[in-house]
Design a protein that fits this description.
about 25% strand, homodimer, 9-stranded mixed β-sheet, about 290 residues, about 30% helix, 15 strands, alpha+beta
Chain lengths: ~290, ~290
């Protein structure tokens, strides 16, 4: 269908048992990263999060096997810059919610070409009526149950937006369907805490780390939609798109007064890519 | 793994494309029913709900193909009483949340032997701290994202219970991980409304229909845990277990004062099975 490469449990081109609990129950977690020059960026952070999140739901991940999957896909691909999606499920089992003790995890790595035009692409947001639930453990991890996000993204597209802003039932900003949300105001960088059902993004983590050296005081704090409208600059982060200015929210054009404050954050993270992978992701052509 | 039969897109024993959105995004719905004497019980209601729920997320289901899958599994199975789980996904696609327009739905039917001992089995419940979100469309349908329920079921087992009672963030009773909740008090039958994130169970529907002829006034109304403790009788419903008395809630033994009021409800539904399938599910051996 996509022509992308896929590796399952040690084999390129494998298929999935339809009784896999990843399909039948959404019983698993995933991770997405980009490999530049065939080197996965921020690999350690991604591996650690994947292992920790899987462990939190009782699945033990063999991180050496994950790396083996990444490298099998990278070796096979003709693209020098590749999105790697890693999926870990509890494996096939009978129909009970409680897994068979014999269930063996399924490990999948899928590759797709990374398009450099997504880096920093400006985004329009529409606020969704679909909420993210802080009382749901699956909303605190990158679990497989993304249907609410699929529906919110569809609704946003119908309203002329690129992505949906998702709130909690109490009206706090959580994140978008695919990204974390940051607001810059008066030299302060603010993003919602994980307790407001924000996704624990790796790019979010890197941006928070880069703030102080870039002269911004960083804070995890509850944000409401009005705070977003009042900010000097709103931007989104994820591991594929890096930092993307948000230009429009529910029909309101947003000020772009903090572009100069975003630039050192993006530069710091691109510097880490250069260090780890030997190429700058801002280059339109692969090195 | 389970020895169960599985039919995918017209073929017994097929495998799944690992890029299927059912796996990668939980982008699909499912249904579970029991076939007695190789005849699916309440087939029309199950087909209609599956088609309506899939349609609500933009997937069109070919109900003739679903029936073909059921019958393929029923023909192949040696068991006269079979649980049929039907799964419909949006099919394989690339990695965007918005589906490829070319995506073709995947249809899976899996069979597993029905054990008559589950019918009416008494249940102990432990209230979960994991909540169900009424602001989530995926909580209003039988979507594939069941990880919260998997975790709640695990937590309940650790506390000596058979199942977890799930509330909404505002403290209303929603349902359990696998069943709807009913309370009988003074000739009134009460179950939470769908707007309190209750699953739209087919057995729930049949029980509500059977109430009036059985001399009970039925009502969909908000319930809180205290209402459950105060009821004459608490019971659970699902399409596999029918009506199960609830005997224990968070360490408190529950009164079983409404057993005689449950019996005509169960009898009415078993009568429908006899009518449609020619056998009584209360018989320990298949007819």
């Amino acid at each position: 269908v996509t022509g992308g490469l896929c590796w399952i449990n040690g084999r390129l081109g494998g298929t999935l048992d339809p009784r896999d609990r990843g399909l039948t129950l959404g019983d698993g977690v995933f991770d997405t990263l980009v490999a530049f020059n065939r080197v996965p960026f921020a690999a350690d952070l991604h591996l650690q999060r994947l292992r920790d999140q899987a462990h939190s739901i009782g699945i033990e991940v063999d991180t050496a096997a994950v790396q083996e999957g990444w490298h099998a896909v990278l070796r096979e691909s003709s693209a020098a810059r590749l999105i790697l999606r890693t999926t870990v499920t509890r494996g096939p089992s009978g129909r009970a919610l409680r897994p068979d003790s014999a269930a063996q995890p399924t490990l999948i790595v899928a590759g797709a070409t990374w398009d450099p035009r997504v880096l920093g692409a400006p985004a329009k947001l529409a606020t969704s009526a679909i909420t993210r639930n802080p009382g749901s453990p699956s909303s605190r991890i990158k679990s497989l149950g993304y249907l609410d996000h699929v529906l919110a993204a569809r609704e946003a597209a119908a309203r002329g937006a690129d992505d949906a802003l998702m709130l909690t039932p109490s009206g706090a900003v959580a994140c978008t369907t695919i990204a974390n949300v940051f607001a810059i105001s008066d030299g302060r960088l603010v993003t919602p805490p994980l307790s407001d059902a924000a996704q624990p993004g790796i790019m979010r983590h890197l941006v928070l780390q880069a703030a102080e050296p870039a002269g911004l005081s960083a804070e995890e704090r509850r944000l409401e939609p009005a705070d977003l409208l009042a900010a000097d600059q709103l931007f989104l982060t994820n591991s594929v798109r890096f930092l993307c200015p948000c230009v429009w929210l529910d029909g309101t054009l947003l000020p772009q007064r903090g572009q100069d404050r975003m630039k050192p954050l993006l530069a710091a993270i691109c510097g880490q890519v250069v260090e780890q992978c030997g190429t700058d992701p801002r280059l339109r052509e692969a090195a």
